């Protein structure tokens, strides 16, 4: 798992061998121990170079080992031995040096890196801290502020950025191992351990705690770096170990590591028809049409252009097209500057003629959420585009199969549901209908990947996965307000749970009129009416009544909260709303009661989770990982809780079932509190680990 050879006469070359990313498994750690010992004791070896095989230095500790019993030599003494070696040790970094991989390089005396290599300490995103000396060596090498930034965010750097910060000694575009060997031959014996004088950074802890939304790892990272600033190296290392011990077995670490693997699981998509990621080849796409340049169309255009695709952007009115062109240019420049990438000119062609998309390979429709308008457009596209052009809709809830039926080639139609702002948000729901060809799904998934999205393939139903689950969550929040809670009580409970925004603040941000339009389209809105049963089930008209008063949220300066002015973001409790709610409850004969945060969490989250089980049962999502990644990347579900389905597994499925039954008895008129039969089945199968749910879902069962 690590090999030692002698090159250029006197350089001991140690290669890590553990494809695909040379993770530091027990065997690799043992290999490093053995090869370093041999190299250091060999009198013919004057200096040592450590590299990774197959163009990757090292992706860090083997995350798969974290769940089980850890065996083999630990990293800290291995790295201390390397640092203490009396022969110069040089790390040759290609591909990635992440987590324990970078910590290995930091223990070496010198680092040479490929300019495009990725370096970073991403442990915080796994609920951990860099506990193989990273929190002690990095601040001593580059200072506290830069180290804090890298360790608390986990962000990756390029080799060139790492050189600027002083993490590496040399960057090369040539063969990195050869450059490192040449470097090793040129340096005298003795080592280069940099020990900066460090001082603490006031105010950092407060800032990190605020942005952590309840995650504990970023806080522990700050504490560990503070130890580097205040304690001698050996004591700092001890503090690092103590802090790591509090994180290692935590539920948050388990949730975050589950997210790491789930993000990779969802790219290996499958559908109930049997089509799969490994048997469906995507069609090559170089030119894409975007129809409709409102907020979504503009974001999609930017995301495509940044991914290096040619875009034909169509808007029917000249004036709107000009406005969109101006906005897209600004967004592109800002995003490219932030990401440090250069723009390729002339990638986007604007037109007011639909015919401009006649020669593209894929079209993304992003016009208003109006079925009649989309039907007409798909009919036109089907006639004017090439016979094999993929037609995709950015609808957030409409029937993909119905749209497909408007075209000559329904197999070429899929949904590509982006999230606003589309050039920033990582989630893409790829929606397949019963007639979508495997190649169409594979192509949309591949295009999402090229745009840097986490793409999740889901089946066709109203609202798909994300918005379908959101309905019961939002409805429960309104019911709680009818029963006595205030928007502040509901939002506070959800924000303390870890959501960046509660239901009502989020609704004010996105606009209350958005949901009002959807409810109108579903025939639920009865202007001026207060009835609380519609279409045979409990309904809260509160949102409609606010809209009738022109309270659309932030954009009108009032909604569930009050704002200083239209467009302001600072939400304040509104005394008017309080009186309005009191009057509403009195007219409805509702007796207000005290509602605590436990009830808020249980009713909102268990309703959401219950719908997730229905979705799994119907095969709309292939597994719990798909739902969890949709919620983590698209809806702000706290990543350190793993997503709604993982959270349910942590709470205990029997407990979720029991609380749903309890609330359903109290509220028999709320269908989404009726426990899903899949949840019952899982509980009666002994509540297996989430990784085993797919087996249970697939098992034949009787619904009797
Ligand atoms: C005492 C504690 C000390 C240290 C703690 C740590 O080091 S924690 C680990 C820190 N490292 C990371 O977080 C890096 C994780 N990996 C990545 O970010 C990417 O995999 C990487 C290295 C940038 C490569 O990306 P790429 O897109 O090329 O490949 P992909 O992500 O699809 O990964 C390929 C397969 O490798 C598996 N894998 C990757 N890293 C690890 C790892 N550290 N441990 C175990 N397995 C890893 C990944 O799951 C993929 O597996 P597959 O079965 O093919 O889906």
UniProtKB/TrEMBL annotation:
GO terms for cellular component: peroxisome. Its main location: other. Monomer. Keywords: Fatty acid metabolism, Isomerase, Lipid metabolism, Lyase, Multifunctional enzyme, NAD, Oxidoreductase, Peroxisome. The keyword Lyase applies. Residues 287-460 form the 3-hydroxyacyl-CoA dehydrogenase NAD binding domain. Its EC number is 1.1.1.35, 4.2.1.17, 5.3.3.8. Pathway: Lipid metabolism; fatty acid beta-oxidation. GO terms for molecular function: (3S)-3-hydroxyacyl-CoA dehydrogenase (NAD+) activity; delta(3)-delta(2)-enoyl-CoA isomerase activity; enoyl-CoA hydratase activity; NAD+ binding. Belongs to the enoyl-CoA hydratase/isomerase family. GO terms for biological process: fatty acid beta-oxidation. This is Peroxisomal bifunctional enzyme. It catalyses: (3S)-hydroxyhexadecanedioyl-CoA + NAD(+) = 3-oxohexadecanedioyl-CoA + NADH + H(+); (3S)-hydroxyhexadecanoyl-CoA + NAD(+) = 3-oxohexadecanoyl-CoA + NADH + H(+); (3Z)-hexenoyl-CoA = (2E)-hexenoyl-CoA; (3E)-hexenoyl-CoA = (2E)-hexenoyl-CoA. It comes from the Eukaryota. Transmembrane segments: none annotated. Residues 463-563, 600-687 form the 3-hydroxyacyl-CoA dehydrogenase C-terminal domain. It is found in: Peroxisome.
């Amino acid at each position: 798992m690590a090999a030692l050879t002698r090159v250029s006469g006197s350089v001991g070359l140690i290669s890590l061998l553990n494809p695909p990313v040379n993770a530091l498994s027990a065997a690799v750690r043992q290999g490093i121990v053995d090869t370093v010992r041999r190299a250091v004791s060999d009198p013919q070896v004057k200096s040592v170079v450590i590299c990774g095989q197959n163009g990757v230095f090292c992706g860090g500790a083997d995350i798969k080992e974290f769940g089980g019993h850890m065996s083999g030599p630990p990293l800290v003494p291995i790295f201390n031995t390397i640092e203490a070696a009396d022969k110069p040790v040089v790390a040759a970094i290609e591909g990635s040096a992440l987590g324990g991989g970078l910590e290995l390089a930091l223990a070496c005396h010198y680092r040479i890196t490929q300019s495009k290599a990725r370096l970073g300490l991403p442990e915080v995103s796994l609920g951990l801290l860099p506990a193989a000396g990273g929190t002690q060596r990095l601040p001593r090498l580059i200072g506290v502020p830069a180290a804090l930034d890298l360790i608390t965010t986990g962000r990756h750097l390029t080799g060139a950025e790492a050189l600027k910060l002083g993490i590496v000694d040399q960057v090369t575009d040539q063969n990195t191992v050869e450059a490192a060997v040449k470097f090793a031959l040129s340096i005298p014996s003795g080592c280069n351990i940099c020990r900066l004088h460090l001082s603490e950074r006031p105010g950092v802890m407060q800032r990190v705690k605020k942005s952590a939304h309840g995650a504990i790892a970023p806080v522990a990272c700050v504490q560990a770096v503070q130890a580097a600033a205040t304690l001698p190296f050996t004591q700092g290392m001890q503090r690092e170990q103590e802090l790591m011990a509090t994180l290692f077995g935590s539920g948050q670490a388990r949730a975050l590591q589950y997210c790491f693997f789930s993000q990779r699981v969802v790219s290996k998509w499958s559908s109930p028809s049997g089509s799969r990621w490994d048997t469906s080849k995507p069609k090559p796409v170089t030119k894409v049409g975007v129809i409709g340049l409102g907020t979504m169309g503009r974001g999609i255009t930017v995301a495509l252009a940044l991914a290096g695709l040619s875009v034909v952007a169509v808007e029917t009115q000249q004036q709107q097209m000009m406005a969109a062109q101006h906005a897209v240019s600004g967004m592109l420049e800002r995003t490219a500057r932030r990401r440090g990438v250069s723009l390729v000119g002339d990638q986007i062609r604007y037109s007011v003629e639909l015919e401009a998309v006649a020669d593209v390979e894929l079209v993304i429709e992003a016009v208003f959420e109006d079925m009649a308008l989309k039907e007409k457009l798909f009919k036109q596209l089907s006639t004017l585009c090439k016979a094999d052009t993929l037609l995709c809709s950015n609808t957030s809830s409409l029937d993909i199969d119905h749209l497909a039926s408007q075209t000559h080639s329904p197999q070429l139609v899929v949904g590509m549901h982006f999230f606003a702002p589309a050039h920033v948000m990582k989630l893409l729901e790829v929606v397949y209908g019963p007639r979508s060809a495997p190649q169409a799904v594979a192509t949309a998934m591949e295009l999402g990947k090229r745009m840097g999205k986490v793409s999740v393939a889901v089946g066709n139903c109203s609202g798909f996965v994300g918005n379908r689950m959101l309905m019961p969550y939002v409805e429960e929040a309104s019911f709680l307000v009818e029963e006595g809670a205030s928007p502040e009580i509901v939002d506070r409970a959800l924000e303390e749970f870890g959501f960046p925004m509660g239901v009502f603040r989020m609704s004010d941000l996105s606009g209350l009129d958005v949901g009002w339009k959807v409810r109108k389209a579903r025939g639920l809105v009865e202007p001026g009416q207060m009835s609380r049963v519609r279409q045979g089930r409990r309904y809260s008209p509160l949102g409609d009544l606010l809209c009738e008063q022109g309270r659309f949220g932030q954009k009108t300066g009032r909604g569930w909260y009050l704002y200083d002015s239209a467009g302001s973001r600072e939400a304040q409790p509104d005394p008017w709303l309080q009186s309005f709610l009191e009057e509403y409850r009195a007219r409805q004969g509702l007796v207000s009661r005290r509602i605590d945060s436990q009830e808020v969490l249980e009713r909102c989250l268990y309703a959401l989770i219950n719908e997730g089980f229905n979705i799994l049962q119907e095969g709309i999502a292939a597994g719990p990982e798909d739902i969890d990644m949709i919620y983590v990347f698209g809806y702000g579900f706290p990543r350190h809780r793993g997503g709604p389905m993982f959270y349910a597994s942590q709470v205990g499925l029997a407990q979720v079932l029991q609380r749903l039954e309890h609330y359903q008895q109290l509220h028999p008129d709320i269908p989404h509190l009726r426990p899903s039969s899949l949840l019952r089945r899982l509980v009666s199968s002994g509540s297996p680990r989430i990784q085993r749910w797919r087996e249970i879902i697939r098992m034949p069962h009787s619904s009797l």
